[in-house]
Design brief:
BirA Bifunctional Protein, domain 2; 3 domains; 6-stranded mixed β-sheet; two-stranded antiparallel sheet
Length: about 475
């Protein structure tokens, strides 16, 4: 049995869902992520990047011609998103067969879908493909293809290239003939036929899925109207012979009225008398009746048959009315479903916009984070260098204070030692030595060297370094003598 070709075209799309972004699919229970390795991504371009590549030059050329700043276009993608009559991206979903005759593990059908996507640009030069994804990770579904595309048309007014769906199809050679045969329907039929041709080359037995009762679970509004009109036309064709026959019967005029006779009863006899002239008329009528009674009988039989056919016609008409009512109910359901789809699309579109803004914000924050990280790293190196310099400066300062401590303690020997270093000092000279000691103690403690301040306050003496210098200055025979060493 041939497999059906399903082709659904619409304006609802989600790159996150198609590319199986974890942020999008973690709550979609119909997807088995363990099977996602079987998916195929043929093409995947971010929509903003695609718009910049396709329309960037046209936007620049358009803005260069505008003298007023308010007429210039900042971001063409944002402009299209705000246009209620246009859509940034369109998506078609293509499937061969169903889960009963194809399923997910259908490599031949997958190859057909891959080729269908790869040859998209040859068939559709004005429908730029920005995403093509084959999904085989929905256990209750069938391997299928998502094609996301942007309609691009050359225009004589405004931008040289614009997002225009109808004009893009027109420039590809698809024209609208009537409300039931629009350019979009003609294009979709062409795409179905292209996929059928690919399937035939791969020896896949397929048939185009169009109309009611041919294996398809849903129809687009245009296909629904076409199917409804076709069914009504078929029923009308079947009823026409019955209508013609009934009309023929209605046009048939048969007079079954008896002649009006002036009857007169004859006295004392079971007879009636009839005038001569009326009797002649009666004879003629009787003769005509005998002559045509076979024809009359045939007409009566035909009338009975036509009554039966009329009953059948009434029943068929009743059935047709019921079918029409059912079609109306289906139409109402379809319109309700279609409205729900539109509402879902609006919600999805808002969600997509929020997600895109979130992605942009995340990208900006990521860049800022990287910049801050680099700044922190640079500052960390600077801080470490400063800490090293600070340590070195502290060590240098301590060395200076140690030298000051040694000098102060040595000067104290002049006043407080009990050996040869004690000098005969005036009162003023003694106060100078004490002032030097207190001054050195104060600044050593002020800069955090409490141990050196304590040493200055409690001790006097000559350090090894100063003693070494003294020894160098003494005559050779007196070296080795001296005061206390520290």
């Amino acid at each position: 049995m041939p497999k059906t070709i399903s082709f659904h075209n619409g304006t609802v799309w989600s790159r996150g869902h198609n590319a199986r972004d974890e942020r999008y699919i973690k709550k979609q229970e119909h997807i088995d992520t363990s099977l996602s390795a079987n998916n195929v991504i043929i093409c995947d371009v971010p929509v903003r990047q695609a718009y910049e590549k396709i329309f960037g030059q046209a936007v620049q050329e358009y803005n260069s011609r505008q003298k007023r700043a308010d007429r210039r276009i900042g971001c063409y993608y944002d402009k299209i998103k705000q246009d209620k009559r246009k859509h940034p991206v369109y998506e078609c979903i293509v499937q061969i067969g169903d889960k009963n005759d194809t399923g997910n593990s259908a490599e031949l059908e997958k190859q057909a879908l891959i080729r269908f996507a790869e040859e998209w640009g040859e068939r559709n030069p004005n429908l730029h493909l920005i995403g093509a994804y084959i999904h085989a990770d929905e256990p209750n579904g069938t391997v299928h293809l998502h094609c996301d595309y942007i309609p691009v048309a050359e225009c004589s007014r405004g931008m040289a290239l614009q997002n225009s769906y109808d004009r893009a199809l027109q420039q590809q050679g698809f024209e609208s003939e009537n409300v039931h045969q629009t350019a979009q329907i003609v294009w979709q039929d062409s795409e179905r036929e292209a996929l059928c041709a690919i399937c035939r080359e791969l020896n896949i037995d397929v048939q185009r899925n169009q109309g009611i009762g041919k294996g398809r679970e849903y129809l687009t509004p245009q296909e629904y109207k076409r199917a409804k009109d076709k069914m009504a036309e078929q029923i009308g064709t079947e009823l026409q012979p019955l209508k013609d026959e009934l009309e023929e019967y209605r046009m048939l005029k048969i007079s079954e009225k008896a002649p009006e006779l002036d009857e007169k009863r004859v006295l004392f006899q079971q007879r009636v008398s009839v005038p001569i002239d009326e009797l002649e008329t009666l004879k003629k009528q009787a003769k005509a009746y005998r002559t045509n009674r076979k024809e009359i009988k045939a007409l009566r039989d035909k009338k009975i048959e036509l009554d039966k056919q009329q009953q059948q016609l009434d029943e068929r008409s009743k059935s047709l009315d019921e079918q029409k009512e059912q079609l109306e109910r289906d139409k109402q359901i379809l319109e309700s479903d279609y409205q729900n789809v539109i509402e879902m699309y609006d919600k999805q579109r808002n969600i997509n916009e929020l997600l895109e803004r979130a992605e942009d914000d995340i990208s900006v924050l990521t860049d800022k984070n990287l910049s801050l990280s680099r700044t922190v790293n640079n500052q960390t190196g600077t801080i470490q260098e400063l800490q090293k310099q600070n340590t070195e400066l502290k060590q240098t300062l301590r060395n200076a204070y140690e030298s000051l401590t040694c000098v102060t303690k040595a000067i104290g020997m002049l006043k407080y030692s009990d050996d040869d270093y004690k000098a005969s000092l005036t009162e003023q000279q003694g106060r100078l030595i004490d002032a030097i000691a207190k001054y050195s103690e104060y600044w050593a403690k002020y800069d955090g060297f409490d141990d050196l301040a304590e040493d200055i306050r409690k001790h006097i003496g000559i350090s090894k370094g100063i003693q070494s210098e003294i020894n160098e200055l003494m005559p050779k025979r007196n070296r080795g003598r001296g005061g206390m060493s520290l």
